[in-house]
Amino acid sequence: MTAFLNVQDVTKTFFGFTALSNVNLNVASGERLGLIGPNGSGKTTLINCISGALEVDTGQIVFEGSSISKLAPHQRAKTGVARTFQIPQPFHSMSVVENLMVPLEYIVHGLIDASNEESVYCEASEILSRVRLDDRRHAHPGDLSQVELRKLELARAIAARPKLLICDEAMAGLAMKEVNEILDILLELNSAGITIVMIEHIMQAVMRFSQRIVCLTAGRIICDDLPENVMANPEVRRAYLGS
Ligand SMILES: Nc1ncnc2c1ncn2[C@@H]1O[C@H](COP(=O)(O)OP(=O)(O)OP(=O)(O)O)[C@@H](O)[C@H]1O
Ligand SMILES: [Mg+2]
Question: Which residues surround ligand 2, an ion (CB under 5 A)?
């Protein structure tokens, strides 16, 4: 059976510095995968290579059996790949609900009647309620709290109706209660059929979320296993967990 997402032997360098070195990773449809690793280990670079913000030097990104390595980010989004950014990137001049119009009108075009403002607005409202942000629909990003900004970032990603959602530290800087709020939303999205790769440093969240964990160190995967095995792995403990 073809894997849902296949990262095949991916290498990425920046001016001679190797950020990713022969990375191989398979993600199954419906899976919840945690991606961990020290600062600078290549997690965001890997996400950028999958989502199309960066082109791989060598190797392939295969999604549902087809190579997407040469596609632009918006084309990858149309195939069903969405990501959130480590630093939320809303359109600051637009309200919360207007922020969703962009992915709805450009990515989902054809699936909903983008010329019908009411149907776009309905869809946006439905997405905002999935991330519990419907009561803030007319606010501007500058007026949102940290957790609300993270929810907007998630809403913008799921507006494109992804099959695969990659979250880059969607909980950074949040209090534990807020971390759990975001986790509950991610678990609900996964139950609704979205495959999720979660990059996170908050180990409590990684453990609650992940069915499998991959640990990157200096651009290489050093462990890819069940959560309890990754936590017990001596190399992971030395490189990342600090013991
Ligand atoms: N566009 C770029 N140009 C040059 N170097 C880069 C670029 N993007 C990333 N790097 C370098 O590649 C390495 C991996 O960075 P990356 O952002 O992927 O790490 P990360 O695992 O996401 O770290 P963090 O946990 O701090 O977010 C770092 O040494 C970083 O400085
Ligand atoms: Mg990063």
Answer: 43-44
